[in-house]
Amino acid sequence: MSPQPRKKGSKGKGPPKGQSPTAKRQQKRREEKLRLVREQVAEGSLTIRQMTPEERKKYPPRDKRESKKD
User: Helix-strand-coil percent breakdown of the chain, rounded to 5?
Assistant: First the structure.
């Protein structure tokens, strides 16, 4: 039994073919965390807000290249 081909223009939810089992687990965990955050925002137990200019100075955005080395 072969998997059904994706429709043109549709975005896949899961990891791309050929991805390692570890990467698949990480992707699954990430999706679960995002689902939990969305639920909390919807029920009002979590609020997402913009950082103030003072907070932005104190916590500047990380360089993407630096964060991958960590």
Answer: 50, 0, 50
